[in-house]
């Protein structure tokens, strides 16, 4: 089951990068929504640090995992963006075809 989740995260990273290339505005709105959600947790939860640790509660464990998933997909999008910015010339047509840039 862990391998399936890992594969889903990799595909999600590529899909998020594709989405970012298609509509930066929409992708930016998702980034803002995620940031506001994290701010709400940080400010309004009585013990946000405790919540983010796997302290045995189902919600704390779920939230900790969800933040890890979001962060990993975000980092993959940033990495793909950096790679795409400095690709060797011979790879650029394939990259453009895959991600329609």
Polypeptide structure, described:
The protein has a domain at 48-101. It is built from five helices and no strands. It has helices spanning 2-22, 24-44, 48-52, 58-85, 92-99. The chain is globular and about 50 Å long. The chain starts with a helix and ends with a helix. The model has no long low-confidence stretch (mean pLDDT 81).
List the topology elements.
Layout: H1 2-22, H2 24-44, H3 48-52, H4 58-85, H5 92-99
Helix pairs in contact: 1-2, 1-4
Structural features:
101 residues, mainly alpha, 5 helices
In short:
The radius of gyration is 17 Å and the shape is globular. It has about 100 residues and is mainly α. Helix 1 packs across helix 2 (about 25-45).
Number of E-state strands: 0
Into which percent range does the helicity of residues fall? over 70%
Net shape: globular
Oligomeric grouping of the chains: single chain
Give the percentage of residues in beta strands.
Answer: under 5%
Q: What low-confidence regions span 5 or more consecutive residues with pLDDT below 50? A: none
SS field, number of helical segments: 5
Q: How widely separated are the two ends?
A: 34 Å
Order of helices and strands: HHHHH
Biggest sheet character: none
Provide the residue-averaged pLDDT: 81
Taking all Cα atoms into account, the compactness measure Rg is 17 Å
Instruction: Briefly note the structural class of the backbone.
Output: mainly alpha
